Each structure stands twice: as C-alpha cells, then as structure tokens.
Amino acid sequence: MLYHALNLEKDEHVIQEVRKHWIVFVGQGFVTGFLGLFPVFLKGIVDVFMPGILDVPVPGNVNALLLFLYSIWLLFLWLWFFIDWTKYYLDVWYVTEKRIIIVNQKKIFDREVSNLRFDKIQDITLDVHGFLSTLLNFGTIRVQTASEDSKSFQISAVRYPEKIRKVIFSQQNKNSHNYTSSA
Amino acid sequence: MINTSPILPASINFNLFSFVEGNVLGIILVLFFLFYCAVSVALFYHWVKYGMSAGIYLAEAVFLAGSVLLFTVSLLSLNYY
C-alpha cells in the first residue's frame, strides 16, 4: 500500500482501511450502464416502429453520424463513471495506532481531511438499517468527539461496521493503557 | 394596377440538418476532446496524489484504454460520414 499522502509518523502504520461497501458503487455503475445502452434500445424501437424517421437529408452517412453521436455520449458516460468511482474510492477512513484519518471526498474538487485522536473519541454508534444492509453487512458508523466543541464524523454504507468498531475500541484501549502506564 | 406579387418567396427549401457537415462535427469532437482532457487531468491528479493502493494503476489503464477506444470509434465514424 502507498500511504505517502497521509503523512504518517515514523512509528505509525495503517491498521484498517474503512471503505464504503461495493454495493454503493454497483448502483451508480448500473445507472451509467443503463444510460449507455439506452440509445441502442431507442434505435431498435425506432427501427421497428418508425423506420422512416431516420431518413433525414443529412449531407453524409446517417449511420456514421449516429455512431459518432453515440461514441461522444459513451465518452461522456465513461468520464462520469470514473468521476463517480474516484469519489467512491477516495472517500475513506484510515485507522492507525494513534488516530483515525478521515478523508471525506465530497466532490471531485471538494476534499476534507480530519485527524481524530483516540483520546478524543467519546462514543461510536453503528446504524445497520434495512434488509439489504443486514444481509450484506454494511451500515453507518458515527464517531462522536469528547471535546468542548463536540463534533461528529460519519461514514455511511461501510463494510463490516461491527468489526471496525472493535478495531477502533481496541486501539483506544491500547492508547489509554499506554498513556496511563507512561504517566 | 394592384401589385399581386407575393412579399415572401414562394417556398423556402429549408433543411434542418444541412449544417451537419463533417467539419462542424470535427469542431465538436475537438472541443469535446479538450473538455475530456481537462477533466482527465483532474482525475489523474487525484489518482496520483491520493491513490493509496496499487489498484489505482489498473484503474488508470482501464480509463485510458476505454478513452482511446471510444475516441478512435468517433474519429472513424467521422471519417466515414
């Protein structure tokens, strides 16, 4: 793994990456795929029910024009698909021995990175809501801070939320134990 | 004498698609290509700077291969037009 952008300390390692479940991206991919195939269905329907509608007096080959427009449409969708994928891929939490690095990729040019030390964590809430979430084991994790200006960080549709909560609690316990024994 | 000649010409032979010439489509393709390059540069910037796994190289390769293929199809269709 290439964690160069996280600026980790020398003795710090990423223990757990917390990502959204792949089902989130499958939904987006399905919409893109449908939009990509839609002109083909439309052309099929037009060919069957209104065959004369495409006999327009264009200066060149109508089929080549349609293929040109379709390829531009597919390029647009291809770009859109990868923008969506980038947002999905870069929206992630990294749990290290010392902190949680929260990367929130809201839009392609809207990125927020927060650091959450374990001693600041007050509570972790899980929300596994609905049939599909229970079946595929994904849900929302919400971390509440204990500071005066109490903040809440959350990531939705995350895989194995219970396992991640255990990892965070375990690191929090280790950190508090280390702090107590060093004091 | 009353002038009975019509003010407007008798008929206009108007073709809605007459502007769809090859060079117009070529300009559309060039403009779209520039837009595509600008967004692709932004995507590659994010992948190179923030991509944390080796899988990002696969994504880059798939993106580039798909883009080249689709631009080739659009160029060929323009050529056959």
Q: How are helices and strands ordered from N to C of chain A?
A: EHHEEEEHEEH
| Biggest sheet overview of chain A | 4 strands, antiparallel
Strand order of the largest sheet of chain A: 1-2-3-4
Q: Give the averaged pLDDT of chain A, no decimals.
A: 86
User: What is the mean predicted local confidence, pLDDT of chain B?
Assistant: 82
Shape of chain A: elongated
Q: Radius of gyration of chain B, Cα only, in angstroms?
A: 24 Å
Sheet/helix structural class of chain A: alpha+beta
Pattern of helices and strands of chain B: HH
Number of helices of chain A: 4
Oligomer: heterodimer
Describe the structure.
The complex is a heterodimer of chains A (183) and B (81). Chain A has helices at residues 22-49, 62-90, 131-136, 161-182, and strands at residues 14-19, 92-96, 99-107, 110-117, 121-127, 138-145, 152-159. Chain A starts with 13 loop residues before the first strand and ends with a helix. In chain A, helix 1 (22-49) runs antiparallel to helix 2. With 183 residues, chain A is α+β, with helices and mostly antiparallel strands. Chain A is built from four helices and seven strands, in the order βααββββαββα. With 81 residues, chain B is an all-alpha fold. Chain B contains two helices and no strands. In chain B, helix 1 (22-50) packs antiparallel against helix 2 (55-80). The longest helix of chain B is centred in the middle third of the chain and has 29 residues, at 22-50. In chain B, 14% of the residues are buried. Chain A binds chain B through residues 1-3, 5-6, 17, 56-61, 64-65, 67-68, 71-72, 74-75, 78-79, 82-83, 85-86, 89-90, 92, 103, 108-109, 111, and chain B through 15-18, 20-22, 25, 28-29, 32, 36, 39-40, 42-43, 46-47, 49-54, 56, 59, 63, 66-67, 70-71, 73-74, 77-78, 80-81.
